[in-house]
Design goal:
The protein has 415 residues and is mostly helical. It has a single domain, classed as Growth Hormone, Chain: A, CATH 1.20.1250.20. It contains 21 helices and no strands. Helix 11 packs antiparallel against helix 20 and helix 12 runs antiparallel to helix 19. The protein is globular.
Length: 415
């Protein structure tokens, strides 16, 4: 058996400098995590809709391809057992850049086998990258750093989403879609260059079985509550998300205007993520989940209002900015909650499983979103997504009793 690598020596910087350095690495990694996700969930629907694809096709294609993020926990033990986090991240980033260039050869009006295979492979590599990035982050951070770090994490991730829904779309008219995909590939290669500078994290390697990380997680008290909460906390947003870009296209917004919408939303999402991270650290997880989750749910009514008859196009801009702001608030608290449940010994597998739960909600809700919009219309569908956000709140009294993994490992006498 190959001996485990020698752990990297601890950073010798002052605590504040060390934290700032960690936040830079986290920002770069989660930009890389969000970029391919944004290509599939934001750029691709506009590409397909402007090319003549139907709403049901867009809903099914985007959601079925996105199943890779839902089921990534199935191969996450490989990331825990084989290679280093850095090697996994870097190899996925280079492959993702190559596949993004391949999008230039697709036909947006037809869901050809080539398009399906390309997108499924792209999503699988993106999900694998996410496994390694999440595990690296959990190993890198102390418990007290997770609140503010998740604010930076969500910000970087959302900036990547906004670039794919803003900057890239604004380049469609001057460059055309083929060159836009090349620009996207170049962005992934730049992040890969940053990944080369990452230090190694301290890892606890043991001769564990493939199932041991999940067995350890399943033995935790209150796990059924955690599972239901993870499935429902982001349900309203996840059901709405696949149809926001087609909605904007159908309201007559051009790709330039959609790009401007992305720029308008950047300030909102950065503010929301950073404020959400700070509030989570100050308030604690329960208060942050309750308060910020409620604000997150209310934002869906912005799209409901924008879809009303006679609503000006500016209402689409307002709804997009509001959704990004409140989404950043709620996600910062939610991710801090999920990370607090993970044993660092099994970080890749356990976090992949927990994050896959709300990915399952994205897959199921998103797959039928196009059919539901065709049956109900945009306005009534967006109202329905508002009510989908509320089952999670019935679980919050039980969520309050869920202990972080660090407390479970420390034992009953832990502070």
């Amino acid at each position: 058996m190959t001996p485990p690598p020698t752990p990297a020596p601890p950073l010798t910087r002052s605590p504040s400098t060390a934290l700032r350095t960690k936040l830079f690495w986290i920002a770069a990694l989660y930009f890389s995590s969000g970029f391919p996700f944004g290509l599939i969930n934001y750029s691709l629907p506009v590409y397909l809709r402007t090319g003549g694809a139907s709403l049901p096709l867009i809903g099914r294609l985007v959601s079925d391809v996105g199943a890779a993020w839902t089921f990534k926990f199935l191969w996450s033990p490989l990331v825990d057992r084989i290679g280093t986090r850095k090697a996994w991240i870097l190899s996925c980033q280079v492959a993702l850049a190559a596949l993004t260039v391949g999008l230039a050869l697709t036909d947006p009006a037809r869901a050809t086998p080539y398009l399906w295979v390309l997108l499924i492979t792209l999503a699988a590599l993106s999900a694998t990258q996410d496994i390694a990035i999440d595990a690296y982050t959990i190993e890198l951070l102390d418990q007290r750093e997770m609140g503010i770090a998740n604010g930076v994490r969500v910000t970087a991730y959302r900036v990547a989403l906004l670039i794919t829904s803003g900057t890239l779309l604004s380049l469609v008219r001057p460059l055309g879609w083929s060159r836009v995909w090349v620009v996207g590939a170049a962005a992934m290669l730049i992040v890969a260059a940053i990944t080369l500078t990452l230090p190694s994290t301290r890892r606890v390697r043991r001769g564990q079985s493939i199932t041991e990380p999940l067995v350890a997680l399943f033995r935790r008290p209150m796990l059924p509550v955690v599972v239901l909460f993870a499935l429902t906390f982001k349900l309203g947003d996840l059901a709405m998300q696949p149809m926001t870009a087609p909605f904007a296209v159908d309201r007559g917004l051009t790709t330039d205007q959609l790009g401007l919408l992305g720029y308008v939303s950047i300030a909102s999402v950065i503010a929301g993520a950073l404020i959400g991270g700070v509030l989570t650290s100050r308030w604690g997880l329960f208060r942050a989940l309750w308060t910020l989750g409620l604000v997150q749910a209310v934002s869906n009514l912005g799209y409901f209002a924008a879809a009303a008859a006679g609503a000006p196009r500016s209402a689409v801009f307002a709804a997009g900015a509001l959704e990004q702001l409140t989404g950043g608030l709620g996600t910062a608290a939610f991710l801090a909650f999920l990370m607090s449940l993970c044993d660092k010994r099994y970080a890749a597998t356990q976090y992949a499983f927990l994050s896959a739960l709300f990915g399952a909600s994205r897959w199921i809700a998103g797959r039928y979103s196009g059919d539901m919009v065709q049956a109900l219309g945009y306005q009534h569908y967006f109202l329905l997504t508002f009510f989908l956000a509320f089952p999670a709140f019935a679980l919050l009294p039980f969520v309050r009793r869920v202990r972080p993994a660090a407390d479970e490992l420390a034992g009953p006498g832990a502070p």
